[in-house]
Amino acid sequence: MRLHNLFSTLLLAAVALAGTRAHSQAVINENGATPIFVDSQNGSDLAVASAFSSTTNVGTSAAPLQSIQAAINLANTRIQNNVATKIVVKPGVYRESMDLEALPSGSSAALTIEAATAGAAVVSGSNVVSGWQKQSGRPSVWEHSWQYNFGTCATPSGWPGGIPSVTRRTEMIFVNGHSQTQVMSSSSLKAGTFYAGSGMIYVYPSSGTNMSTANVEVAVRSNILTISGRSNVVVRGMTLQHARSCINQSGSVVNGSTNVLIDSVQAVWNNWGGLAVTSSRNVTVQNSNFSYNGGVGFQGFELVGATLNSNKSNYNNWRGNLGHFYNWGMGGTKIMLSRNVTVNNHHSYGNYAQGLWFDTDNKNITVNNVYLSSNYLSGMQLEANEGPLVVKNSHICNSGMGITVLNNAKLTIQNNTFYNNGGTGQLYDADLFIAGRSGGHRITDWQTGQSYDLFTNNTVVTGNTFENTRTGQFVFGTYLSGGDWSDFANSLNAGSNRWFNPAVKNVFKLPSNHQVSFSAWKSAVGTDYSSSWSKPSTSPAGACAIAAQ
């Protein structure tokens, strides 16, 4: 029986590896694109009205437009005439929202929005606010009239109740480029914080800051980039910041689009999400940074054919952390209901949640050469996915857990390094934690309507290194029991792994919290006989360190 299960599992692994190679990505011809230049300091939009008739130099390098949206409007006219267009955005801060709406059918020429200097063209959701005055009786606190009443965002449908108000707020203030922490009462103000009251806003800046001369930016726009129903679009080298988006919403969104390339973009310091790509096909996101966002760095939903290559999503969910809210729709990178996705050479560290999360109804996923370190919850979470899903050649380190697997079928974990995960006081501490709903997790395929009862089975774990550093950590853990545990254990194919904890040997946590040694682990699962209990000759600590990334 065991040989039959082994053969079946190896076959499934082969299918998984083969089925995830042909992932789609954006292929866009930008050659020969007609340029439009934008300059926030020296440009003008006044001549745009005549740009469709006799005026031919509007948007030239010598006579640039002032706003990116004016350039988009002009570019849309050209694209409808099948003229590929590149908007070149000169360095500066553009305090506006960009909207690329759907065009008539047949308008397929490429549109590129590209920073003339990568990172120096900043689209910001904030405005500069001057005229701050010291508050009477509190010389360390500065005040300003407050015309906005954003209030508290509604809890998203299906989310738990009781989410703290501070997690559902959208106000953000930056003083000389430094984010100030929001507090919920005037009495809570201290250095580095602000409070939005009724009709007034108060800032207690760091020592030595003169608010009357400081550059004070206040977030006022909830969306700064929307690409909807488009094809053949490139966004390159732009910085997208300070969108005051509500909980579970992103400041920049690509929706219902095809053949989109996001290249060398920074979506940083937004109130909830950095960038969301939803209901889109053939998407490539590369060399980009989705960090310091209040909820989630990058979010993918209903992607069909996507390549994520050489991106970072670090230090996200600071807004959730203010309300001690960690485990719902936040983290470094989260992907749901997607098909044929490759994540390669990715870094997610320091997030107040999961680093990389595939949540529900994902198929044909490959994760290769990723670094997930120092995340508050799991380095990686795999939840309710049909698979196949392959995780290989990666480092998962220094987090609350390594990989958490919840009702995930056809998973291959191969040639990875797990180091120093667990022992952080979280409920479950292990390098590899297998869990899920008792009796399976029922989902409905969003494309076909077919329903599945998902169990964690047909798992392949080969060629990995699992190294703890102290007591309180486990190389393997589970709370499965009964048929759920038998389904996992009897279909597991494990081998050529290296397991080690320098402090204790009983670090395999089996059902009913039964903690056993390596020898008992092999007996319990009936596999992994080619593996060893031994310390690696070279410590992975250096490769796992954030500074090394």
Structure overview:
The chain is mainly β and 549 residues long. It is 11% helix and 37% strand. The strands form six sheets. It has a 24-stranded mixed beta sheet that branches. A seven-stranded parallel beta sheet has the order 26-29-32-35-40-43-46. A five-stranded mixed beta sheet has the order 8-9-14-13-12, with no helix packed on it. Helix 3 links the parallel strand 23 (296-309) and strand 24. It starts with a helix and ends in a 5-residue tail after the last helix. Mean pLDDT is 93; it is low at 1-21 and 50-57.
Biggest sheet overview: 24 strands, mixed
Whole-Å distance between the termini? Answer: 45 Å
Average pLDDT metric: 93
Rg to the nearest angstrom?
25 Å
| Low-pLDDT stretches | 1-21, 50-57
If helices are DSSP runs of H or I spanning 4 or more residues, what is the number of helices? 6
Shape designation? globular
Q: DSSP strand (E) fraction? A: 35-45%
Q: Please give the share of residues in helix.
A: 10-25%
What structural class should be given to the helix and strand makeup? mainly beta
Count of distinct strands: 46
